[in-house]
Amino acid sequence: MTLYYSVLIIGGGLIGSSLARAIKANELADRIYIADVDSKACGVLRTLDIADGVSADFRDFIGLADLVILATPPGVMKSIGAGVVEGMKSGGVLTDVGSIKLDIVRHFSTFMRSDLHFIPGHPIAGTENSGPAAGFAELFEERWCILTPVEGSDESEVARLSELWEKMGSQVALMEAERHDMVLATTSHVPHLIAYTLVGTAMDMETVTRNDVVKYSAGGFRDFTRIAASDPEMWRDVFLQNKDGVLEVVDRFIEDLSALKRAIRWDDGDTLLSHFSKTRDIRRKIIDAGQDTDKPDFGRE
Amino acid sequence: MTLYYSVLIIGGGLIGSSLARAIKANELADRIYIADVDSKACGVLRTLDIADGVSADFRDFIGLADLVILATPPGVMKSIGAGVVEGMKSGGVLTDVGSIKLDIVRHFSTFMRSDLHFIPGHPIAGTENSGPAAGFAELFEERWCILTPVEGSDESEVARLSELWEKMGSQVALMEAERHDMVLATTSHVPHLIAYTLVGTAMDMETVTRNDVVKYSAGGFRDFTRIAASDPEMWRDVFLQNKDGVLEVVDRFIEDLSALKRAIRWDDGDTLLSHFSKTRDIRRKIIDAGQDTDKPDFGRE
Question: Which residues of A touch B131 (CB under 8 A)?
Fold first, then answer.
């Protein structure tokens, strides 16, 4: 038994195309449609043979879908949101895979219809690669997916959407949108901002050539370049839409960095050592929780 | 033909024990001795069977060695340096594997003997693991090793030491100690400082639990924890000994981060997008240069 008859995925990039693959591989829907405004992406999606229909215009499928999944950059979700909601059939479920939840919830609440079920979501999965060809069915396995249902959401629809994610291999957590955004500011958004910043700083040093940076990157720098190679457009949207959470965590980070800087300047080795010793423990816990690597055969380039 | 008759490695941790393994595997010396003040480490080193002699006291072997390699934390190198130099036999070569060069060069110049060859070195290789059991013979393969010979160094001895590294699989670069330290501040030291800082910031958030941080670390955070799990004592020494280089790069980083923070606060998406787009290119170059991963079978846990 499939979970939904007809699913429309809007946005066929890394996440959207992986969703189509995973839904197909696990037989979770009878019909899978993908819409992507990029005609080149549509061409790739057609050759991949992971959908029953591919179009540049979501309106071609929107009236058919029992489940609509928004998998575009967050900024695009907001600009097409009203049209998506307007076109959906009564009783349909609308979800998304965006990295910020509060901003989307607020925006969609201004035009949401009472005969639809809106259940925002966010799979904590991804690789540094983007585009439809980069996707794979196993992307969500052993990864967390956070759903942030609004007050009064239909429990059976939340359960059905949770089951979809679980059948694709994820563990599902339910939490409020506001809490989600602060957790993700800490574990994802600010790490990305810092990585982007550091790679830029290194590129602009006059005393160190770009060739040096590349050659000697195995000393630690390369881990930052991996993160800083992520989709620029998506991350611009993320930072602007989770502004409050990101700025709060960044300010604390700068405070903490300034304290360590001061310890270095004043030769305060004890402060450094005690700080560096406590951070080891978290690494061990991440390894124990199985969150330390991408899928061995897929996620790493 | 071996390159050296007798080699003494002082410090039998990840790097020191990997050196012993690589020298043995590639038959680069007739005799390999390891000294490590930690008696537990000595026990492990003996069971590994990678040396002809293991002792807690380097004085047991120092008079025998044609090549002495200092592979202790940088702080220890400075405290034992005078005793090492005093005990070496005439004509011997002294090198090290420390992450900072200028501070060591200055310190050792105060007691260096004119009948020894002092050729500081730094292999850009390592993993997050430490201790003798974590080492492996392939650690230096396809990695850069920087040598910073002082003015007037014997060219044939620099060539012989370069050959040792090349036979272990490394590429050798020669540069001045000062330049080395600025390059490494950028590609290694500041990335580590930032990773240590961010992991600490996340641990101290009141609104985000440590359990959250572990669960959702796949969003970017886990790459920082990998770096922030490195040996705390070694990194304390690194930051204190490359103080000028580290503080210069950190100050620039904070400036750049503040500029991006300001762009977020003022909704300046264009500044963010143009910054994020330029950093992708470096990642591609690192992949092309083969510096993007540790050894597939060893370096990753």
Answer: none
